[in-house]
Amino acid sequence: MRDPLEFCLAQDVVPEAARVVRVLPDTADWAAAIGPMAGYLRETGFAGRSGECALLPGGDGVASAVLVIDAAERRRDPYRFACLPGILPKGFWRLDFSAMEAEGAALAEDAVLGVCLGAYRFGPGAAKEGARVVTPQGVEDALMLARACWLGRDLVNLPANQLGPVELAEQARAELIAAGASVEVIGGAMLEGAYPCLAAVGAGSDRHPRVVVARWSGSRAGPDAPLVSLVGKGVCFDTGGYDIKPSSAMLRMKKDMGGAALMLAVALVAIWRDLPIRLELRLGCVENSVSGHAMRPGDILRTRAGLTVEVGNTDAEGRLVLCDLLTEACEAEPDLLLDAATLTGAARVALGPDLPAVFGTDDAFCETLLRAGYDTRDDLWRLPLWDAYDAWLDRKTADLGNVSDKPMAGAITAALFLRRFVKSSVKWAHLDTYAWNDTAAPGRPAGGETLGLRAISEAIRRITMN
């Protein structure tokens, strides 16, 4: 795991030795707060609007900087600080929140996280040394989220030839063991017996599937502590199988393991926070390929739950990966069950790339997820589990099909498919995410993304700490 502390933060620097970034509210008296340099800023076009950042000259070059943020914003918003790594010159910098009244502690956490989100790079130049922001006291939680985000982004960005099912499983195992979890990596005949539907998805690839099962209990968690179960889709590359994708749609299919990367990141944050919970994590690591061993349209697959599934489209493989894992997760009667997957293009048609779709069987659980997403500037949007569409999955030759027989509501019918494998007594939510930034913006570099990380982590904390 790469540590943001080694790239964009500094803990062992005397604050007085660093240049200062003054954080100012976007109020009418910004000029008075800046002092004699206000005239210089006006000459350069600076207007004191929220989001503006400017460097101030000194005798030896850049002496300091100012950043203006929205004074009325009460949501936690790390993106207000994400521009700094791209603007500040190399060297050490200290953030000055004295003009922000009583908001300094919360802003410090947002600033550290925002700097880390904005400093993230992958590929050539990723290790390039730039500005280093002196880390204030009391920002441990921001550092946890930053580390988890960087790990998730790195995993999604790795090309498929470097991150296959075995490599993803081993990376997850190493990170979870280092955090204190017990981990089992399952493959071979044991996997085929326990997760037959998942095994059918991976049968077409020479890179054999793996399932990661991890368990952990917090230091304050007794045997009756809430059991939180997480499940992630880890399709390391998706050709579409025999229903092969066009080349343009295949270009980004290394990101089809984004659900597994997200759930791994969420699990690590819960462990690092030492929440008073029992935690289970399941990751289905597999490749959907084309060969003489691959599943075919029309095949009927057996699932762990005993239901049979007719394959209507081999490119709808994610739900086949998840169904066995959800079945196993429900066997332990979790208090909360959450899965995440880059599951459907239909969710992107409905909500675009930035908003993961949430489906769920428990209104309170879903509302907590949505509120946590709003409060952390990591928004989610709920779509319905519309019961009338459930019959669209029925088949004459099997218990259900992996795709609907209607060309509509694809994200909803995919969620309804998954619901067939979740016990009605379990509070369950499903996240259909894009796991990618198509274009770059401050704090949102083009490439892999952990959409929902802050929202889910905060929701779990709120539910289990009450």
UniProtKB/TrEMBL annotation:
<feature type="domain" description="Cytosol aminopeptidase">
    <location>
        <begin position="313"/>
        <end position="320"/>
    </location>
</feature>
<dbReference type="InterPro" id="IPR011356">
    <property type="entry name" value="Leucine_aapep/pepB"/>
</dbReference>
<dbReference type="InterPro" id="IPR048816">
    <property type="entry name" value="Peptidase_M17_N_1"/>
</dbReference>
<keyword id="KW-0645">Protease</keyword>
<protein>
    <submittedName>
        <fullName>Leucyl aminopeptidase</fullName>
    </submittedName>
</protein>
<dbReference type="InterPro" id="IPR000819">
    <property type="entry name" value="Peptidase_M17_C"/>
</dbReference>
<keyword id="KW-0031">Aminopeptidase</keyword>
<comment type="similarity">
    <text>Belongs to the peptidase M17 family.</text>
</comment>
<dbReference type="Pfam" id="PF00883">
    <property type="entry name" value="Peptidase_M17"/>
</dbReference>
<dbReference type="GO" id="GO:0070006">
    <property type="term" value="F:metalloaminopeptidase activity"/>
</dbReference>
<dbReference type="GO" id="GO:0006508">
    <property type="term" value="P:proteolysis"/>
</dbReference>
<dbReference type="GO" id="GO:0030145">
    <property type="term" value="F:manganese ion binding"/>
</dbReference>
<dbReference type="Pfam" id="PF21337">
    <property type="entry name" value="Peptidase_M17_N_1"/>
</dbReference>
<keyword id="KW-0464">Manganese</keyword>
<dbReference type="InterPro" id="IPR043472">
    <property type="entry name" value="Macro_dom-like"/>
</dbReference>
<keyword id="KW-0378">Hydrolase</keyword>
<dbReference type="GO" id="GO:0005737">
    <property type="term" value="C:cytoplasm"/>
</dbReference>
